[in-house]
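User: Could you go from structure to sequence for me? I need the amino acid at each position, not a summary. Structure tokens:
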């Protein structure tokens, strides 16, 4: 989670001088070779033809929205405020899972969702200070990530890992590449290296996250995503001089508590489906918060005590 937050801090650093489309184009291009090599090394990699093309296309579009919107939000808002919007993802996932997965949400989780939304209002303070397009972008990014997570749960058992991981990267390259001629600014060598670092950090953190799910219960690992709040506050203070105010910290605490409660309810039997918020194949969102890089990218270790929730 510290690496993920560092990844986002670099996006914010680059966002001060470059368009989100340009940043993501170079990051996606640089992530293509290692991700492709990693996936093709799997004996079961297979072809890039999706079994459910419509769902894969919608999921890829949702992740593209997630990446562009969140990168734009990081450029104009403090890290802690963006995280407050992004940590509504478990709440959104719970709601979206009702029509797409047939989930039944009881009063406990509806109460948690209401509490999380109250936390968002505490952070935004409607009427207290002007809201910007950055807040809308962060919420759009969270919605994109949540939709991608639910779709992954819906089609995950029938789709190959290479399809779920590479198609969103391909779409990112196409979309950001199409926008590049209109927004391009020459990049210094150091900034280009930072774009490469974005790709490297995402892959590294994703691999560590997968291994954590391989060796511990999802109920233990999943709440650790909220530690990104502390890392974001640290990076925001050290790199950008950002100090979250009391309202932001209170709202973050409320949002985190509601999200953790939903995770706890799902992992303890509150969901009749495999929990979408803790499933290893759920998110693959390219901007925080994520669940994993993709559970089936890495084979389970021989004799591992805990298996993936998608593969009991």
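Assistant: Here is the amino acid at each position, in order:
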């Amino acid at each position: 989670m510290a690496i993920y937050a560092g990844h986002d801090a670099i996006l914010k650093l680059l966002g001060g001088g470059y368009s989100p489309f340009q940043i993501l184009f170079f990051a996606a291009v640089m992530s293509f070779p290692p991700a492709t090599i990693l996936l093709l090394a799997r004996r079961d990699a297979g072809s890039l033809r999706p079994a459910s093309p419509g769902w894969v296309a919608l999921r890829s579009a949702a992740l593209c929205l997630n990446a562009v919107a969140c990168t734009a939000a990081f450029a104009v808002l403090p890290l802690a405020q963006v995280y407050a919007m992004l940590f509504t993802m478990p709440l959104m996932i719970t709601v979206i899972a009702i029509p797409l997965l047939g989930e039944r949400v009881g009063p406990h989780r509806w109460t948690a969702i209401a509490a999380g939304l109250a936390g968002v209002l505490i952070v935004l303070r409607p009427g207290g200070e002007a809201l910007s397009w950055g807040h809308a972008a962060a919420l759009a990014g969270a919605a994109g990530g949540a939709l991608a997570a639910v779709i992954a749960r819906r089609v995950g058992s029938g789709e190959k890992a290479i399809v779920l991981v590479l198609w969103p990267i391909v779409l990112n390259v196409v979309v950001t590449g199409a926008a590049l001629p209109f927004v391009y600014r020459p990049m210094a060598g150091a900034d280009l290296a930072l774009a490469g670092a974005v790709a490297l950090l995402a892959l590294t953190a994703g691999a560590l996250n997968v291994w954590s799910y391989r060796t511990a219960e999802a109920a233990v690992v999943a709440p650790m995503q909220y530690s990104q709040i502390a890392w974001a506050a640290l990076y925001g203070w050290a790199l950008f001089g950002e100090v979250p105010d009391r309202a932001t910290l209170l709202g973050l605490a409320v949002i985190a508590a509601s999200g953790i409660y939903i995770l706890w309810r799902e992992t303890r039997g509150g969901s009749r489906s495999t929990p979408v918020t803790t499933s290893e194949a759920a998110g693959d969102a390219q901007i925080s918060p994520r669940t994993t890089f993709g559970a089936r990218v890495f084979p389970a270790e021989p004799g591992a005590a805990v298996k993936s929730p998608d593969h009991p």
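One structural detail worth keeping in mind: The mean pLDDT is 78.
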